[in-house]
Write a structure and sequence with these properties.
The complex is a heterodimer of chains A (about 110) and B (about 120). Chain A is mainly β and about 110 residues long. Chain A has no helices and eleven strands. Classes of the chains: A mainly beta (about 110), B mainly beta (about 120). Chains A and B meet through strand 4, strand 5, strand 9 and strand 10 of A and strand 4, strand 5, strand 9 and strand 10 of B.
Chain lengths: ~110, ~120
């Protein structure tokens, strides 16, 4: 089991604020990093899969970066909206665990108008 | 939505009983993975099935077992339920191609909430 840590545990921002979260992981045997967004009572939604050091991905107002050498990924949300309120999970797959995803505990984001 | 469905949505059982949870994969996917999310934790990998064979297993006892059917739907069976088995159970389907590729996106269902009394 890989130790994937996410911070902060929770975050409360105002509509229009930009925000970012961190996912830290052991850098050895890295294979891929996945970001998911999970709204209450819905299925986790895949946001990004990142594999290469220096990868940057973007989807609308959400973007992510990856540093495999130091073992971290940042998720950024620009101009947060109430509909961005959700739990954001990162998960690591590595060459030892095959295709199993090792999840962090998530960052819970609340965006208020 | 992901096209992955799970049933039932909620379930209440008592200690010692057995339970079967079901998952229908997204069309065209050949792999299903099951995860357990206990309160306050991230999802934990239980096992994965690829073309009806177990393809990997996490740190769960043998009383957790599974099946994958020819139509790629899947079941998770838990025998001799314990209080600590109370959790949200998620299944995820993906398209696993030949060769090592850990980047396949896994598409999750909404989960089954199991309560053991």
């Amino acid at each position: 089991i890989l130790n994937v840590e996410q911070s902060p545990q929770s975050l409360h921002v105002q509509e229009g604020d930009s925000t970012n979260f961190t996912c830290s992981f052991p850098s050895s045997n890295f294979y891929a990093l996945h970001w998911y967004r999970w709204e209450t009572a819905k299925s986790p939604e895949a946001l990004f899969v990142m594999t290469l050091n220096g990868d940057e991905k973007k989807k609308g107002r959400i973007s992510a970066t990856l540093n495999t050498k130091e073992g971290y990924s940042y998720l950024y949300i620009k101009g947060s909206q109430p509909e961005d309120s959700a739990t954001y999970l990162c998960a690591l797959s590595d060459s030892n665990s095959g295709y199993a995803l090792n999840f962090g505990k998530g960052t819970s984001l609340l965006v208020t108008p | 939505e992901t096209g992955v469905t799970q049933s039932p949505t909620h379930l209440i059982k008592t200690r010692g009983q057995q339970v079967t949870l079901r998952c229908s994969s997204q069309s065209g996917h050949n792999t299903v993975s099951w995860y357990q999310q206990a309160l306050g934790q991230g999802p934990q990998f239980i096992f994965q099935y690829y073309r009806e064979e177990e393809n990997g297993r996490g740190n769960f006892p043998p009383r957790f077992s599974g099946l994958q059917f020819p139509n790629y739907s899947s079941e998770l069976n838990v025998n001799a339920l314990e209080l600590d088995d109370s959790a949200l159970y998620l299944c995820a389907s993906s398209l696993l191609l030949p060769g090592p590729d850990g980047t396949d996106t896994q598409y999750f269902g909404p989960g089954t909430r199991l309560t053991v009394l």
